Amino acid sequence: MNPDKMKKRTKEFARKIIEFCRELPNNREGRLIGNQLFKSGTSVAANYRAACRGRSKAEFVSKLGIVLEEGDETLFWLEIIGEMKIHDETSVEYLMQECDEIIAIMVSSVKTAKQTRKQA
Questions:
Q1: Mean pLDDT rounded to a whole number for the chain
Q2: Which end of the chain is more exposed for a tag (fewer CB within 10 A), N or C?
Q3: Count of alpha carbons within 13 angstroms of residue 67, beta-carbon side
C-alpha cells in the first residue's frame, strides 16, 4: 500500500477509535480504558505520518516501530473491552481486525525497509 493510502487508512482508523471511545460507558472503567485506547489508537495514525517524514530509512524504521507498539497496545485495550463486555462485540471485532491488518502492513513495511537499507 502506498504511503498516501496508508495515511488515509490510519487516519480513518483513528476516527473510528474516537467514535468508539465516545460510545464507551461514562463510568470509571469506561473513562480509564477509553483514555488509554484513545491515545494508542490515534497515535497509530500520528506516528505513521511522522514515519513518512523520516529523514532516513533508519528513522523511518524506528518510527514504524512506534506505530507497531501503539497498534499492539490498541489491540490490548480492545481485547479487554471485548472480554469484559464493555461494548458491543461487532464494533470491537471490526476495530481489532482493522488494527491487525494495519499491524501486518507495518511489519511488512519494516522488513522491506530493512532489506532495502542493507542493499544500499
A1: 95
A2: C
A3: 33
